[in-house]
Fold:
Amino acid sequence: MQRRAAFDNLWLAGALIAPQLLLVLVFFYWPTVQALYWAFSTQPPFGGANQWVGWQNFEQIFSDSVYWNSVRVSIIFAILSTSLSIATALLMALMVDRQLAGHRVYRFIYFWPYAIAAPAVGLAFRFIFAPDAGFVSAVNQFAPNLWNPALKGWDAMILIVIANSWKMAAYNFIFFLAALQAIPRTLIEAAAMDGSGVLRRARDVQIPLLQPTLFFLLVINITESFVDSFGIVDITTGGGPARATDLMVFKIYSDGFKGLDYSMAAAQSIVLMLLVVALTFIQFRYVERRVHYA
Amino acid sequence: MQIRPFAAAFLAASTFLGGHAAQAQERQKFEFWYGLTGRLGEIMEEHCKRFNESQTKYEAKCVGQGGYDKAEQNTIAAFRSKQHPTLVQIYDAGTVNFMLSGATYNAPQLAKDFNMKIDWSAYFPGIANYYATSKGEMWSFPYNSSSALLYWNKDAWAKIGKSKAPETVEEWFDDLRAMKKAGVECGFAFDYDTWMPLEQFSAIHNIPIATKNNGYDGLDAEMVFNKTKFADYMKDWKKLLDEGVARIQTAQTGKTILQAFTDGTCASMLSSVANHGVVGSTAKADLKWGVAKLPVYKDFKRHNSLVGGASLWVLQGKSKGEYEAAAAYIQFLLQPKEEQWFADVTGYIPVTKTGFKAMVDGGFYADPKRAGRELAIESLTFTPPTAVSRGIRLGNFTQIRAEIRAELEAAFTGKKDMQAALDEAVARSNQILRRFEQTFKGKQLP
Structure:
């Protein structure tokens, strides 16, 4: 038997949720409907006469090898930056949770990067990784041309992955730390008394108990790397060299705002939205099954 | 909310006290958006200040948009929500978008409605032709105008015993190779900007970039630059790069071509005359440098180069007062005194022949600090503009530049053969042009 709570006063219930609904309507549904309309028409830059073109925009996108390249690049970026940011955050959280010397300071400063705006992160990393003048240019002193994100696609990809992970690791860190601190000390102490070392305790006790957090962060990080990586790409690589870092969200920006082709950008953002929805759905359907909520 | 009554009272008091005086000299304001950034952006700000201080009737509110492309994007977005400025600085590549927008208050009409004194024939033909409609009218007012030049390091050339800049492309490349042997690490710095190698190069060689006279004769133009001398030029650049004679310098590599030239790393670059002032003020102390007209291939006759920079567009939907103020501002900018001040602090060229003559007579170009700036005008007026050296009028040209850039990146980084990259760039540019044609179905270029 399931107990259901029901409101007798529907008007009151409606009034109570109205502000929230209104927000969602204005900031999500309305733009989405607008984008849908644009995606099926051609929209002149200054507005005005739309022409209905049916599926043409989508056909053009899907037959474009450059678009498929940006899908491929986005997926690589999502996988790399999600794994890197989750792994480093987990490592940092485990260390801080052990209350090593100075852990209070670390707990505080590890979160900072998330508070920095993406373009600022991009600017900092562009300087650090500049092959001629940056911090990393020392590498090129020993092995000329080993590192050059302006010329080598993979270097550029590594650059944006590191920049994005640096930012996201800070976010993940807070969640991991909170989850670690929620694990009863008695469990860890019991394991310690049974003779298991630090690594063993992390592997067999802590990480399994972190599963719900891990899953949550996986979903958030993947979504984030698809839709929120624009600022970093724009400042560091500009999508290049030769489209090696032309992420889907960056391509939407350049086609829409630089190229003033709003319809093509709208069609691409619809595709991106569906892709993110599908990925999230898959994660909930197949990955969440294996998550044990304590 | 303790402060509110106090603030309200203060406001009321100040309106009461100052109201009368303010009414008497209420200035007519108007908004002007500009795209230039950095030092040039500051100069735009100063130009506005000079206007505001020169008279008491009008007030220009000048707002920087953080880049030419951003100025165009923001203006379009603002226009759609009716928050747009009266006057906006739009770069050369955005001209056709504004011509077809239906959102503009065209220059000849404004000049007529507000009795502006403008001698349309005083504009340099190279400038006037670039911006003109098929009927020969300019719909916007040319403002900051430039052309491209070769910047060369005299010390590096001295190492091979030369004291003159190369005139032909062949001579230039030979010099670069000789300099490499003489120990110059980087003879030539370039980035992927298409303005110098494609647009200016094609104009001075009098070769087309696209059919229909580079798009002036219709929206159905098609790109042809993969089959012209430009393709050879790019292949030659690739060779220089492979031989270690030339180098790619972008913000991503750590130094832009400008920085690599001014700190003496690289011995030559192609850049706008607008950077003449910046090079002068940022070059390392002992750098001896000069400028020259862009090199031309031996078998070609030199033609005029293109005007670059931006023009001022007036937009629809503003009040009469605002138009009057904007007209006064434009009139102010065209005064010889202002043209000279602006040219002095930037490196931009004067847009009118009268302004130029006044500057020559005043000894402006005799100053060693400005040596060579007159070459930009010499280059721009070298021959009367031909059908293809007149300019480029292609839809969505910003996006086309981006596509060419991406393909050049692929070719210069060795991912693709140069010819294959250029063919691809042409195919993709044509797609953009067809797309533009479709979006503006039924419209004609004015």
Observations:
- Chain B touches chain A through 39 residues (CB under 8 Å).
